[in-house]
Structures are given as structure tokens and as C-alpha cells.
Amino acid sequence: MRSWSVPEVPALPGRGPRVHLHDTATGGLVPVGPEAGTATLYVCGITPYDATHLGHANTYVAFDLLGRAWRDAGLDVRYVQNVTDVDDPLLERAAATGVDWRDLAESQVELFRGDMEALSVVPPQRYLGVVEAVDLVAEAVRDLLAAGAAYRVPGTDGGPDGDVYFPVDADAAFGTVGGYDLETMLALSAERGGDPQRPGKRNPLDPLLWRVERPGEPAWEAGELGRGRPGWHIECTAIALEHLGMPIDVQAGGSDLVFPHHEMGAAHAHLLRPRARPFARAYAHSGMVALDGEKMSKSKGNLVLVSKLVAAGVPAAVVRLAIVAHHWRTDWEWTDEVLAQAQARHERWSAAVAAPAGPAAEALLATVRERLADDLDAPGAVAAVDAWVEQARTTAGTDAQAPDLVRRTVSALLGVVLP
Ligand code: 5CA
Ligand code: ZN
């Protein structure tokens, strides 16, 4: 599917250092991406059943910082993102509101594109809906069946036989992405789209791979699987393996995807391509944005929308600045104060880069690079820019190139556009 337009990324002198990132699986900082060549990134995309909100924006901006740091370090970036355009919550919302599920998905993806463009997020090279990838997913499920790493479950509650499940015990590395104990995994599975109570499964944690057609639900022909639709986790694995290969450098998403989504996705990949293990060299998880003390989520409806802020006259660069002022891995809360601070900072920065001269800025560029290469420490980079801006305000800088270098640094590395 169409992604969105590429923002202008100004050129900078020199190169950034190798990027290190916190890896969920090992719990430590690891170098990510090769020393030279192409880095690969898969970020889990939206389920387009309701307007995209600041929480989503936070996640895609976080990994946009990664892509920018990689490119600045001289790497090419291959970036793939999916759209979960067939899934239970989307179908339920469509049925409840009397809208065709395809129209609902398309309208929400279009809103998302607008948000991403406004926020200067560099688009993925491949932006794929599950609807476009059904054959790919079905092939992966058939491969798992052929490898003995999938099984069929009899129907319950009058439902049809033949839903296909994945036996988590088939992967020796299962559980190592999130490192959770069994009790926590069971609770998270029930909370996040799993069905631990379903009778007939070998292990309550086993996730759905293929759901046989039910009346009124969309379904596709899939050979020996019969008509049906993909399960959630296998969708991302199949798309990542096809378009990025294995191992990928970074598998990313919000922290609510650690378990079950990324744990299951990795386990599927390990069985599909045993010799290419691991699925990802690093697993990166961004923090959750909250509103009024609760995680912002479509199901709760406590949303702040980028599109609404922009329509109300807030420059998108201010929203981006509010986001990058928080460390990508921390949970934080959107408040009027956060917005006001970003607004004031954007004004201070804009005034400083509009001056005819300022203090020399080569050291600032080096610090911003160094901060971002150290686990995407954007708040550290923001503090360094603040310090330069303060110096520009209080001393008569004479470097006529400096304001433009700061403008380009902030735009290229933080993605914050200054007028
Ligand atoms: N389609 C699946 C992934 S394959 C999905 O989780 N979709 S989503 O629309 O629910 O979320 C899209 C992305 O935004 C995910 O990476 C998710 O972790 C992240 N996300 C959702 N809510 C928040 C939030 N409140 N704060 C930060 N990130 C969030
Ligand atoms: Zn995903």
C-alpha cells in the first residue's frame, strides 16, 4: 500500500558514531546495525480501527530517530512496516458502526499518513497491509504445518473445525524475548488478543495462526488451510521474512507488544528458518504515552490526536519536539504543560537559528550525534541544543554559519523543523 511522502533531511558534515540501543531480550545496550552497509528495521504498524493518537506518534517518532541516526552513521536503511487491516478489533468496530471494514481501515490509514507526514517521519520503503500479504501468511502457515510446528484445533461453541495454532513448546528459545514467567505470560496473553482458555490447545499460550472462515467475516482461499484469515503474530513474521530476510537488525514496537506479539513472532520465525536464528538481533520497545493517568488507547478512548492538535493551530514540529523531549523507553503523560514547554522551546530555538550569527556549533553537532547513538538519548540531545540556544542568547556569537548548522542538525537528527 502507499506510504507517505519523504521529508527533507538536510545534509550534515561528517558522520555519526555507531548506534547502540537497549535490547529487551538481553536487557542491555547493544550495537545495532552493521558497521557498514544496510541496516534492517521492522516496526509494527497500526491496527486502523480508530484515529491514530499521540501514543502511536511517540512509537513511530522513536524509531524514526533510529533510522536517522543510522543514515547519519553512513548506513542504508531498509525499513518495513505493516498495517493490521484485518483483525478482530477492526471487524468489531466496523460491525458496530455499520461501516465496511475496508473503508474504515482505509480512512484511518489515510489519517495516519497525514500524521506521519506532519511529524516528518521518514516512511518505510515497504508499507504493507495484511490484506496484501494474505498469500504470504498462508504460505508461512502451510510451511509450519509441514514442519510439524502447527496443529489444527476442533471447533468449539458450534464454530468450525480447523483453526490452526502454533505450539510454543516447539521453540527452545520461547520466552527469551520478554523473559516473563508463566503466570505473567498467561495474564498478558488473555489481555492482549490471546485465547488461553480455548479448549483443545496443547499449551494455553499457543497462538492462532489461521482462523477458518466464520459467517460474515472476510476470508481468503488458502489451499489446504481452507478459507480463512491470518492470525496476528504470523502476519508480522511472514512480512518481515519476505521483505527483510533474517535475522533482522531491529524488531520494534511499543512496550505493549513485547508479549505476546514479539515473543510469538520470534518463535514463528525460529521454526520457519531454523538455520537463520535469531529472528532479530535486537528487540526495541518504546514507552507508552498516557492521558489522565491511563495508557492512551483506542479501546479506552482517552486519545489526543496529532491531527486535532495540528488543526487547532499547534505546529506539528512542536508536537514532535514534545515527543523527543522524553526518552523513547520511558512511559510519560501528555499534559497541557508538556505542550506549553514544547511550544516555548520551539520559539526559543527558532529565534536563535534566525539570528545572523551565533556561537560555534560544531561541538553541538558532535554532542547531539553522541547522545543519539547512546540509546537514542533525545532528551540529552535536546538539552545540548538548549545549552547552545542559551549561549546564543547571552553571548554575542560571531559564527555566521552556526545558526544554519544548528537548524540542519535539529532537522536532520531530531526531525524537528525550525522555521
Ligand atoms: N497492529 C498492531 C501491531 S502489528 C498494533 O499493535 N497496532 S496498534 O494500533 O494497537 O498500535 C500501533 C503501535 O503503536 C504499536 O507499536 C503499539 O505498541 C504502539 N502504541 C499503541 N498505544 C500506544 C501508547 N499509548 N503509547 C505508545 N505507543 C503506543
Ligand atoms: Zn506486529
Automatic annotation (TrEMBL):
Keyword line: ATP-binding, Ligase, Metal-binding, Nucleotide-binding, Zinc
GO cellular component: cytosol
GO terms, molecular function: ATP binding; cysteine-glucosaminylinositol ligase activity; cysteine-tRNA ligase activity; zinc ion binding
Residues that bind Zn(2+): C44, C236, H261
Intervals of motif 'KMSKS' region: 295-299
Pfam name, any one: tRNA-synt_1e
Reaction catalyzed: 1D-myo-inositol 2-amino-2-deoxy-alpha-D-glucopyranoside + L-cysteine + ATP = 1D-myo-inositol 2-(L-cysteinylamino)-2-deoxy-alpha-D-glucopyranoside + AMP + diphosphate + H(+)
InterPro entries cross-referenced by the UniProt entry: Cys-tRNA/MSH_ligase, Mycothiol_ligase_MshC, Rossmann-like_a/b/a_fold, tRNA-synt_1_cat_dom
Keyword ATP-binding on entry: yes
Domain of life: Bacteria
Motif window: 'ERGGDP' region: 191-196
Short sequence motif named 'HIGH' region, residue ranges: 46-56
Residues annotated to bind L-cysteinyl-5'-AMP: C44, G45, I46, T47, T59, N82, V83, T84, W232, G254, S255, D256, V289
Cofactor or coenzyme needed: Zn(2+)
Free-text comment on the cofactor: Binds 1 zinc ion per subunit.
Boundaries of every tRNA synthetases class I catalytic domain copy: 36-343
Enzyme Commission numbers on file: 6.3.1.13
Function: Catalyzes the ATP-dependent condensation of GlcN-Ins and L-cysteine to form L-Cys-GlcN-Ins.
Family: Belongs to the class-I aminoacyl-tRNA synthetase family. MshC subfamily.
Subunit and partners: Monomer.
PANTHER family: CYSTEINE--TRNA LIGASE, CYTOPLASMIC (PTHR10890:SF3), CYSTEINYL-TRNA SYNTHETASE (PTHR10890)
Protein name: L-cysteine:1D-myo-inositol 2-amino-2-deoxy-alpha-D-glucopyranoside ligase
Lineage: Bacteria, Bacillati, Actinomycetota, Actinomycetes, Kineosporiales
